[in-house]
Amino acid sequence: MTETFGDKVIDFNRHLQYSDQLPENFRVLNPYLDNPETMEVMQQFYTKFYHDTNQRQFIIGINPSRHGAGVTGVPFTDTKRLESDCGITMQSAHTHEVSSVFMYDLIADYGGAKDFYSQFYINSPFPLAIVRKTKEGKWLNANYYDDPVLFEMVKDYMISSLKKHISMGLDTSKVFILGKKNAVFIQKLNKEAKLFDSIKVLEHPRYIQQYKSKEKQIYIDKYILTLNNVE
Length: 231
What we know:
Elements: H1 5-14, E1 26-29, H2 31-34, H3 36-49, E2 57-60, H4 69-72, H5 79-84, H6 98-110, H7 113-119, E3 120-123, E4 129-133, E5 139-142, H8 148-167, E6 175-178, H9 180-193, E7 199-202, H10 205-211, H11 216-227
Parallel strand pairs: 2-3, 2-6, 6-7
Antiparallel strand pairs: 1-4, 4-5
């Protein structure tokens, strides 16, 4: 029986772990170990939308947030959008994630989840959530590039992860990067590992939703033009 794109993603997520060192006050969260239902809904999602062997375009985020993929196991997808747009209900958690709002407004304009995911695959160079301890002792979302020591420590792991994503059946002639700062670091990885032929950079959904919400439709139109290779 032929292994589908979805089967490969599910297998990748099932075996996700990070056991190497991290700088002081940084921690990695693995949603699949923290909540058994995360594994269940992730499997439902990839079985539903990736049950084929078609090649897809790669969209790269930063790393999962605690309220998006850090709960659902699906990039840029909180539990609200997982249910309303993907038809998959999560019982044990209820989350709202800012980036997910923009991403699913874009997906709706693109033609809906089925059309969008038939052509695109979203993930991150560091596929697990990273949190950082503040002086007050709180744990907050962190990006893999927030600390130069952190980046150096996770760099090889990220290159390995990106290669595994590519092996699932991704088009490497171009890649779409979400976030300008993210793109700077992906370009460094790409220069070293020669993963993609060309890089297209788009503003990060969180930035648009938080700071450019009045112009959101302009950014959605830009995304669609770029993803369709018109821009």
